Each structure stands twice: as structure tokens, then as C-alpha cells.
Amino acid sequence: MAVIKVLPHSLREKIAAGEVIERPVSVVKELVENSIDAGAGRITVDIQEGGKRLIRVTDDGSGIYAVDMPLAAERHATSKISEEADLYAVSSLGFRGEALASIRAVSRLRIISRRADCDEGTELLAQGDEPMEIRPIGCAPGTSITVTDIFYNLPARLKFLKTNITEQRKIQEIMERYAMAYPEKAFVLTTDGRELLNAVPAASAEDRLIDIYGRQAVDGFVEVTAENDYVSISGLVSRPGFSRSNRSDQTLIINGRLVQSAVFRFALDRAYRELLPTGRYPLALIRLQVDPSKLDVNVHPQKAEVRFVDERDVGILLERAVRRTLLERRLRTLNPFTEARSEISRPGTITTGRKPYAVQAPVNMPLMEEAFTDFFSGKEMPAIKQDRTEAEADMPMKGDGFSGLQVAANTGVNIIGQALQMYVVAYDDLSIILIDQHAAHERILYDRLMQADGGGSEVQVLLLPETIELRPAEVSIVGERSDILKRLGFTVEPFGKNTYRLTGVPMELAEASPAAVFRDIVSDLMEIGGSAREEQIRASLCRRIACHAAVKAGDVLSESEMKQLTVDLLTVPGRAMTCPHGRPVMIKMGQAELLKAFYRS
Amino acid sequence: MKAKIEKSCLASTLQAIMRAVSNRSTQPILGNTLIEFEEGHLLFTGTDLEIGLKTAVKAQVESNGSVTVPAKLLYEIISNLPGEEIELCQEKEHELLVKQGKSKYSIRTLPASEYPLFPELEKGDICEIPAAILQQAIRQVIFASSQDETRPILTGVLLEVEGNNINLAATDGHRLALRSISLPELSQEQIALIIPERTFNELSRLLSSGEGEVVIRVLSNQVAFIYNKIVLVSRIIEGKYPNYRQVIPGNLPSGTVASRDEITKAVKGAHILAKEGSHVVKMSFSAERIAVTAVTQDVGDVYEEINAQYDGEDMDIAFNARYLLDILGNLDEEIVEIKTGTSLSPAIIRPVGKEGYTYVVMPVKMG
After folding, report:
1. The complex's ipTM?
2. Where are the domains of chain A?
3. Chain A interface mutation, best of B22, B24, B38, B113, highest count of A Cβ atoms under 10 Å
């Protein structure tokens, strides 16, 4: 008996759909892109239960003719391209003719649509492999597509969906990205009638950014532009002082399409080299216009990736443009004195050399005299006080004069001093010890924070409360996690639309920047997702707090600080000797190892 | 160029200039000092582009000119010379000779034309202020400025002219230190400048003799402090300082008056244990006394009590001990007053019998 057989149509459809429709957000993406291709000016998305129960995308686009309706939900049926040549110069977002067919295969689909030039609309009802129902209906111009009970016929996939909150957040994120990609269009997202996003048509990309990130954040961006023969780049990137702990705020739009690109990520990383500490990423909204013939969008069923000719060159173009913009900004703010200087040394201008004050600006002379009256009256210049101030006395020991101070008796460790402004160097009876100051402090704080659960930690109330504008998706997660945040010591309260007011921070963070920490905490929450267990979330947030609160590499430690650190680290029994990210806190070189290294036996 | 100069004058000048010279800049010329030979004196300039110092030293100048040399090198050379009179002259291009008796040092120079321009000292005095008062004011506010580079504005100290007062204010978002100095002759303009903390630190050093007056002058995008024969020019931090007046509570119902020394000792004592943990100390106010306590898990606890006049309902309030010690250590008066509202609202600490100083500190909410 033959073993190989052709699969039934409905199974083929489900398999094909799996590539395009992975979760509710995939449906939103496909439908919103259809709306954009239909020239819609306003796109409204309603969801229920994170899109699992219902997704409805309504637009005011061109609509579908009644005669086209039967083909609309068939695979490889599309109005967007018609011959092979079109495939190499796709100018619409969709073209594969798969979206509606795939959605139809895994859900219950209802389409209502009317062309503006027709008197009445058409309704289509479809469900898996069953025959479609099509009938006339009265409706407004445009298209409204309702997708209910996604994966009702694919229980395996249904099982792999995340919680409603997580799925909803993914939809929120992609809607925010579309809103940024198409500032001229209106985007609305609601869940059970509650508004999650309402972006009215904006005059510019920057104005739209205000809708998403808030006015505060927009000042943190600078504009970037660049172009070559076939690509033009425009966008906004964050100043080095404004960064995130992950890349989720980097959006790349190529010819109106939201895509992922390793080339783009690397280009940004390189542009911010030395300007951001490791593990920090810039925010960026970059828009590329590429000649469609240079672009291959047909590489990924969800079109999340694209290829284009000379990708590397475009990466370099972007990197240079960003780098140049950042450095220009930086020089201008850091060096007020250089401006004057550059005027005389600018190449191409004739300089007569630097002249003494009197000649260069005669008007200054009396003023200088005035400044130096004491000099002209012959008084001695006061001696500069060279006493060691209290602050200096607290400075770390220098290489000379090892005092080898004894740390608390029960550790048996002698501290020699700080090396490279990163390590505490010490020894005990058996070995030489190097302690990584940041990692060690992180571990101590982390353990303390994790232990302090239940009773709640101490809160430093803020004299200057910080208002923090968040993205809509972030607002909902702060709301959901308010209990944990409160227990950790963050006092936040809603303060108008998409804004929170931070009035207290955990005591440990007294020295850190409250707004920066809070933003990082929020991005951690976003990354962890809605389904994580509470202790996972708490551990992750404690890691973040410990990292912010700990002394940094490069911080100069005083004798007493080194002693405190060593004692704290070593006197708690059973303390893990790794930082919360898993790196070692301490390196010991034992007698045997040292003997071997020096070829002694 | 050629000049004769006294070693002690030159040494103290170079010591001052070296504070502004940059030691690890990628631009070697910033490690240099600019020396201008002029009739009757030498002008020395040092800058790291953040601050600039310029000063004049009396000298017998035989011929004029200007040159730059490494400041530290010149200082080390002259410090090592035994005699008093030192000759500086240029015989070959790119070399400055330092001569005394039979000793002769030749230092490579960089051209003066490449040295950053020192800002022009246009007119625009804000005020003239006694050095000792300014120095005290700086000491009493500077510790409250923020170390957080992500909020550049708060890393500076606000210098503000308002009516007949010149105000210095600093805050890190947890506490605020404000010192007002009344001056009879102030330019009536409203002025608000944010001065980098480092500038005030350096200025404070220059003022250590405490005599005479300091002139403060606003330049186009810098500020100049002129004292004795020294001009210190600094960049200004751009931006708008937060409205600090808004956070100073008006009428606080409760107040306690006690000896600064006694409170300091009690808080220091409590801090010995508190610093093993979160640095939090609790103050309990009741009639006739303040109890200062701290508890650190697995370490120990402490109870300190001092006499005080207290007017108000019994209350507990907790603070970061460091914020208390900062202020207590920088006041000069014997008696201080602590005014409180609730255990979660800002408290004020002021010296008794002296106007013009206010310290606002936020409490800690105990877990």
C-alpha cells in the first residue's frame, strides 16, 4: 500500500497558515497592513481577551467589490501584484495573497466591505474549510474584518498562546510601531471598549513620537538623515543619556514595512560604541526609502525580514550618519571653550596668531587691570591651601605605604587596596584575593533585597517627584504590577494620560537616578511578560535595582568602603559567589597556584 | 621673550593653575599653561575646557611674547631649584629655558596660537561678595548637589539673584540646601545660573585665605569669578533649574530645638549600626527629648537620647543618616531647629539665630 499520499485541503491550509498566523498579533499585523495597502486614513482595532476571543480591524480604505469577495479569502489570490515582474518591485505591504486565506483556515472570519463608488456593501462569512456565505449588506465605505476564536480548530497552537495580557501587549506594541511608521494615519486600539492607543493624524514623525513616548522623551531624541543613490534614511535616535536595557524601542521601517534587520542593529551598536555602557541600547525610529527593485521582501512569510542589495553599505551609511549627529551634539554641549578657539584655527581662514589681550580687545584692558588690582598694588598672591581635606583623607590608599588593614577578625582577610578602580585586592593566610567591586556589591544588595520581602523595604520619599511618561503598553503593565512595585519600595501614582508620578524609591537607590531606574524596571516588566511567576518578576527587578545601586567599575572606594564591602560579602554564610547575572564576584589565587606560576616547587 | 621672576610667586601661581590644567586629555596642549610675557608681569592661563584660570605674577620682563609649556613639568623644575630668582627665556624656537645659577633646563613648548582662547571679560558684574561668606555658603550647599550624571542640572549649584539676595541652592531630589545672602548693592536683574559643582569646589580652594571680595560676572555663556589676582572662568550648565521654592514647606506644625553638637553625636552613634544596613535612623520627638534609634538586622540596634525643647505631638520620623550628618557638620551655629509635618512629609533643619539658611530633607518610609 502506498505510504505517501497527498494531504487533504483543510490540513494543507492549516499547515500553510501556521507560517503566517502564529498568534493573535499576526492577525492584527496582516489586517492592518491590508488596511494600509487599501489607502486607509484611519485604522481601528478592537480586541477581546488579548485577541484570542475577537479581533476586529476596521478601516476607511478602498474596500472590496462584491464581485471580488469570493476570491478575497482564497490562497494566492490578491489584487496587489499580477505578474512575476511585480514581485521584484513590490510597493505594497502585502503581495503573497495569503493573509486572509490563512486567517480563514484557523478562525471564524467575517468580512464586511463597501467600495465608496457602490451603493451597498458585501458580507462574507467563512469558517475553516466550510463553504463561504456571501451576501449584500448595508455598511459604511471601507472594510471591517472580524476574526473570532482564533485556533479554535488547532488546539495544539491554542495551548501555546500566552496569557491574555501578554498577547494584548504584543498587539499594543505592534500598533505603536505602525503608528510610528505612518504618522499621517490615525490608529486606535481598544480592548473591551477600553482605549489602549489613540493616535490622531500627526503632522510629522516627531509629533507622532509624542503620542507614543510623551513630550518628555521627545527631547531625548535627535534627528538623523543621510542618503545615497538608492536609499534615503531619516529618523530619530536617542541621545546617549537616554537608553534602554533592551532593543525593544528600536523600530526600523523600510518602505513603510516594519522589519527586523541584523544589519540595522549592528549599525546602531557601532554608532553608539563608547557612548553607551554595555548592555544599554539606544531608542531609534529609522525610516529607509529604498528603490523597490533593490529590495527582496519575499524571504519571510511574515515579511519580518527583508533583503536588499548592498545591505552592508546601507548599514555603514546609517552608522556614520548616527555617529556624526551624536558627536556633533556632544562636542557642542561639552566644550564651550572650543568654539572660540575653532574660530581662529578653522582651516582656510587666515589667522594672525594669538594676540595678547591688550591688542586683541583693547576694551578688556581696564577690566583685566581691575581684576588684578591687588597685583598692581603689590600685594602677595595668597598661598593655595594644600591641606588634605577630609574628603581626600578618605581616598583610597595609593601604592605607597601598604597599611594592609585588617578586616573584621572573623573573615581573616587583609585588604591591600583598590586596583584599576575596579577590584579590591586582599589576601588571607592561603591566597591572594581579587574582589570585583561592582559584582560583589550587586550580590550583597541583591541578597538583601530578596531577603527583605514581606515586611516591605524602606522608601526614600522624593523631594522632587519625577513625572515619567510611558508608552501605552507600558502603562498597562505598571498598573498590573503595582503590588510588586510597591513592595519593592517604588511609590508611583497615575498622573494624567500615560504618565506616572514617582514619589518614592527604594532606599538602596538613594544615589541613583530615579527616573532612569524606573524606566529600566518598566522595560524589564515588558520583557518578562505577563505570565511570569511573581518570584521570577521580583528576582528580575531586584537584579535591576542591585545593579543600579551598586558601586560601579571606576568608582574610587575609600578604605572604609572596601572594608565594608569585604565584610558584607564574606560574613554571610552560604552567600553565592557570583553576581546576580552569574559572573564571579571573587577570584582567589592559592599558594599552590602561585608557586606553580613562579616555577617553584 | 625674557623675564625674571621670584620662585615663591611662580610656585604658588603654578599650583593654582594646575588645578585647571587637564592631565589626561587627548589634546596635549591642555596639559600646558599659557605664559604671556607683558610689561611688568607674566600672565598664566590654564584650562581643561570646563574651567579656565588666569592670573598675573609680578616679573621683570625684558621682552614680550607668549608660549605654552607643560604646567606640571615647569612646577617640578622650579620647585627643585634652590635659589629665589628664576629666569625664563626663549633662545630657540619651540624651547623655553628655565635658568638659575648654573642650572639650565630647556622645555619643549607648543605655540601660544594653538591655546584655547580665554573668554573675554566683558562687563556684567552681578555682585561683589566677601570671600569668607561665599566660601561658607558654598560649603553649606554643595554637598546637596546630585552625583547623577543623567540629571546634569541637579549636578550643579544654582546661583540666583533675586531682589537684594543672592541665593545658592543645591538639591539631589532628596534634600535641598539653600543659602541666601543679602547684599546691599546688587544688579537688579533677575539672574539664574547653574554652576558646575567642580567650579565651586575649585573656587572654594582659591578663597581659602578668606580675605577680600569676590566679583561674580556673567559672560556670554560662562561665568567668571574674580578674586585677588585670579580669574576663574567656568562653563554654565544649560537648562532650567527646578522651582525649589515649591518644595520648601510653609507652616510646619512641630518644632524641636536642640544642641547641634548633641544631635550630631547621637546621629553619628546611631549611624555606626545604621551604615551596616540601609543608613536609616529614626528620630522620635516628644516633650523634652529626642530619641535617635537604628536597627540593623543581624547586626544590632542602638538607642540614643538627647534633651530638646519640643513643641508638637509625639512623632517618629526616619531619615537617611547621611543627609542629617551632611547638614549638621556644615552648620557653624550651636543650636539648631528641626521642624516637621508628618512622618512622610519634608522636614526643615535651620540654625537658630541666623537667617538665610534652609535645609529641606525628605524622610524615609519605614518598611
Report:
1. 0.73
2. 9-199, 220-332, 396-440+554-597, 452-549
3. B113
